[in-house]
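Hallway conversation turned thread

IA: we were arguing at lunch whether anyone had actually written out DUF402 domain-containing protein end to end. Turns out nobody had. So, for the record, here is the sequence (221 residues) and right after it the C-alpha cells. Reply here if something looks off.
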Amino acid sequence: MSDRRWRPGETVLERFHRPDGSIGQVHPLRVLEDDGRVLRGWLPAGTAIVGSRLADGRLMREAPLEQRFRVPRVAVADSWHGASTLRRIAEDEWSSVWWFFDLEGRFKNWYVNLEIPLGRSPGAVDRIDGVLDVVVERDGSWRWDDEDEAEAAIEVGRLTLEQFDRLRVEGERIGALADRGAYPFDGTDTDFRPGPGWPAPELPAGLLSPRSGEGPAPARR
C-alpha cells in the first residue's frame, strides 16, 4: 500500500508509460475514494486528455496491424468521448476496471484494461498499457479484446513474452470473476451518478507543447 493517497474531489492523472520510459496518453480522473492501494476515479465524456497518434498523422487503428507498433507516436490534444468511465485502479493488480456509461448516464458494460503497474508518483498513477484487454458484458459474459494487436506488440518488442503471459493470467482471473458474477462484476456501481455540479477533471497546464497537437482525435475506447 502506498503512502501517497488522494482525497475525494482531487484530480489525479492516470499516465500510460511506454516501455522506453516516455509517457503516452494521460487521463485526468476526479477522485471518488482512495485508500493508498485502490483508487476509484471518474472520467466524464468530453474531458480533455493527452492522446496519441502515429507520427505521420494517422490514428493507430487507421494503420495496418504490422505498422501500429513500428511507426513512432506523438502526443496530441484530445478529448475523451463516446462514454464516461468510472475506474478502479489497484496498485497490485495488472488491470484496471472501467465501468462504461453512455451519454445519458446509463451503464453499458465493463472494459478491463490489462496493464503493468508502475506505482504512484506525485499527482499520478503510472501504468504501462498491456494492449490485450477484456470486455465484460452486462450479463457477465466476457471476451478478449485486441489479441491481434498484442501479438503484433510482442513481435516488435513492445511487450515481452513474460509480460504477455502475466497479462493473460490476469485476464483469466478477471474472466473467472465475471463467470461467478463476483465483484466488481456483481452490479456494484452500475447505478453510479456523478454529484450534481461536479466539474470535469482538468489536465495541468503545459503538458502539451503548442505544436504537439493537431486537434482532437477519437479517444480509444
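OS: looked through it. DSSP finds two helices and ten strands in the chain.
IA: good, adding that to the notes. The radius of gyration is 17 Å.
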